[in-house]
Amino acid sequence: MHRLRERWRQQTDRLRSYCRVDEADPEIEGLIHRHDSSLKMYLRQVAARRFYSSIQDSEQIEQFVVSHFPEWLDDAIEEAVRLSEHRLDILGYNDIALGDDIDWHRDPVSGYQWPRRYWADYDLVHAPSADAKVIHELNRHQHLPRLAKAFFLTHDELYAREAIGQMESWIEQNPKWSGVNWQSSLELAIRAIAWMWTIFFLLPSKSLDEESLRRIVKSLFAQLDHVYRYPSVYTSPNTHLIGEATALFMAGLVFQELPRAEAWRHFGTVTLTHEMQRQVSKEGVYGEASSYYHCYAADFYLQAMVLARSNRLSFPEWMWTRLEQMLEFVMHISRPDGSLPLIGDDDGGRVLALSLEDYGSFRDGLSSGAVLFGRGDFKYRAGSFCEESFWLLGEHAWSVFDALQGQLPVELGRSYLRAGCFVQRSGWDAEDAHLVFDCGGMGTQTVGHGHADALSLTLFSGGREILIDPATSVYNAAPQWRNFFRSTQAHNTVVVDSQSQSRPGSSFSWRRKANARVRRTISLPDIEFIDGEHDGYTALRDEITHRRRVIYIRPNYWILLDELRGQGEHDFDFLYHFAPDTELFMFGDELKGDLDCQARVGDAGLQLFMYGSASIRAEAVCGEMNPIQGWASDRYGERHPSPVLRASMRAFAPVSMMTFLMVGKEPTQSRRFNGNSNHALAAVIRDGEHDDIAVACADDGDLHLMDCVMRGEFFWMRMENGNLQRLLAVNAQSFSHAGEKVFESQTPVPYVQAYFWEDGMVIERGEQEGKVYVRDLRDRQFQRN
Questions:
Q1: Would you say residue 752 lies in a domain?
Q2: Which residues lie across from 625 on neighbouring strands?
Q3: One-character DSSP codes across 500-566
Q4: pLDDT digit string (tens) for 708-717?
Q5: Above pLDDT 70, what percent of the chain?
Q6: Which residues make Cβ contacts (< 8 Å) with residue 92, sequence separation at least 6?
Q7: Containing structural domain, residue 599
Q8: Residue 260's domain is classified under what CATH number?
């Protein structure tokens, strides 16, 4: 029914567009008449009082900025000069010259001229000539608030005239419902937010005369009307809908005297509430499996909810709790340098772009969160008070932030079970290690921005990103690149038979989606164990199931256990994507299935030891085109060569691989144990003063290794000077050492942890039994705690 109504509206509006109906806006005329025939008076004396407090008093704000953050003023002037010359950055394209007279329908990167037609007649996803993201990003007008901000802080009318001139030229070139810049309700919503900030920044300007202001506000309201008539309820019910609701809520709240503003605000309030409940989990994770779009959603909610609170309107308390949880997720997933691993799609832009232009980092969100929620850990991770927080929350926010005691976050890891996202770190300092493991599939809501990256991971250490998610690069007009960057081949996981886990459809759809699940997690003070699997390769003629276990031995290394079960002979590619400036050195016995790969990224390092159940062939790949491999993207629209380690097996299933990831600049040693069972992998790695042994078994029989006999799925043993100090056994039935039985069970125990000393040991079983103390191994007297 909704689609039929929308279709009817489109056809009705098409006729109105051809006939030039609705040129007048009686509601605006009435609003002006009720305020002494001065729209500017209404905006200054009424509407502006409801907007953000940071725009209320330009002289006071200027004094504050000069006194506390003079660099903000310097940066604003420097950028405003560049913007006045019609030069700006658009996505990953830097310092683009728009020319003396800006053509708002011309793609400034490719030169493509978008045709003028009725807004509903475009098919931008399948347009082969140019990427619509570029023209949309230009027409979001997020550079205009930065121009207006420079005027607000300096009172230089040059910047005001430039911002006003650009808005007026846009209005002239974009009559209602005509052209590509009316095609997307989200783009209109973001432009409306940018125009609101611009208008209120410019209110003190003499250049903003009544005539110009009326033209601009009339166009603003027409764009908001379009958003209200054509929300993305069914077409893109994700951040599109959240963004549209935010713009309508803001406008409906600020311009309350406009009769139709109540409908805008009601739609915004109801939609924002409903969509937070639907799209953001109770863990505080946005449902599209994208770190970038998580920040995007949080940013929209910050703008709307802060404005509501300042106007004494209340969103439900649970929404504030969930917003706080969203920022907690940002805190945990952000790397030690504050940057985000770009998991899933990245849009390339942002919501509030008064200083920063993307979400390479969302420290400003944490800065705002520190003030809103009194969180010292948010302040610690924000590092400093951010300019976006100032404009969003006002001058008083600086006092709150300054008085807040920064606190080191307590947790070294966070498990988001519902999202399937696991974050592990060695500490919170700049040089510490940080790993994100993705076991969540393609998202819990719409999957247009998820990637085929199940069981992939990223790794940061020594102040540098090492194992990366290559990100997105492009959405439209280049299907081969779009499909590569969202494919399994572009992620740190296993590719079977050169197929992606999920089969792509159009730019934002999938013909078939892999399902991922978390099988088990174990969290101990210094060891974390995560077990996940996906079914993406069960669609092959000979089905394969990929299972990956990630074991973190804090603080120095990880063990990855990949198991690919099924039938038939297959090609298995184990992929690791490295940062672009990484140097790779490879050694080993490939015929035996052993590989030692040493990676150097500046002063940071990573050593990979790989032990396969069959022979492997290892190679470094960078910048290949047929097939595409070895590419990464730092920001939308950009891509560059980036090295990939590809360790390949041609073997009959089942196959398995044990991989050690040891961070640090100093190389270490590792070796496989000879004489292993055909159904087990075992290797030892040197970690400081210890020799750590890992054993992965694939059957239920007893395995003999050195002077140990074990039965179970996984065993980790820490040795010092040849003596067993510690044991972790997972899904195990028995373990004996030097002829003494440590534990035995008729059924597998979830986990057993044991500490040994000269004549005793302590055992902890992963059940409800508590601990068992063995006081004297010689007489085997047991005491149960």
A1: yes
A2: 628
A3: -SSEE-STT-EEE---EEEEEEEE-SSEEEEEEEE-GGGGSSS-EEEEEEEEEETTTEEEEEEEEEE
A4: 999 999 999 9
A5: 95
A6: 348, 633, 634, 635, 636, 637, 638
A7: 413-668
A8: 1.50.10.100
